[in-house]
# Entry
Amino acid sequence: MKKISIVGAGRVGETTASILAQDNLCQEVVLLDVREGAAAGAALDIQQADTYFGSDTLVTGDTDPEIISNSGLVIVTAGSPRKPGMSRSDVLDVNRKVIEGIVDDVMKFAPDALLMLVSNPVDVLTWHAWKRTGWERNRVFGQAGVLDASRMATFISLETGYSVKDIHTMVIGGHGDTMVPLFRHSTINGIPVTEFLDSGAIQHITERTCNGGAEVLGLRKVSSAYHGPAAAIATMVDAITNNRRRILPCISVLDGEYQQNDVTTGVPAILGRNGIESVVEVHLDESEQAALERSIEKIREDLAML
# Structure
């Protein structure tokens, strides 16, 4: 991919741009931000740092949305962040207005791009962006499940003492406290994690995974997480730009999968150069299906507020 644009040069956007450039995942990374000098300054800082990483990716930044022209992928990280004690839904109204303007710019200047939403509440805003564009569902998707799965893997590693390199996890549902960590579909070097964890440990890991972002925010006070989200975004970008067709938990538009229609939520999906190539339906037992339905119901409640 020649050009990737990131809208929002805050901590998540800037850190993402740095990773994409260091990993040479495209020829040009663009940062767009309404704050005068914020995107240009971040881009220049990254460009200078990349001399030590052997990267010749061009990194630029501006306030003019035309800078995103001809992007193959646009990543949206802009919006109002959560403050301690706030839920992701609490920032819906202000971020909806932000997203609408961004989506209109993408349709005008990068009409052939893929569109990845990161701004919260990401499930709801991904649906809203998809509806506003009128694009095919493979082109509009969100990042959350990759981040949530990484948090789950971290907590399993801390609980068991085993290397996180061998831990593979899956989290579905909304990006909030109703997300559904799938322990039956998570493994340590191919062995189900349920072989290593008792019910108490599973409950503890579930709670920490569902509140992973709030835990970071509560500790930092002045900033929500950004290293983890940026790494998760870069993982998805790598799957797209290298057409790896990886199965990753992505916020996808559902059209009959998991008995749901006209809603967006985190599910396993095949991610490649065309975006979401297909949704993967894994078998859920009764409790997992019920938990997913509760999570989607919360998303629908927020959709009704749009």
The mean pLDDT is 96.
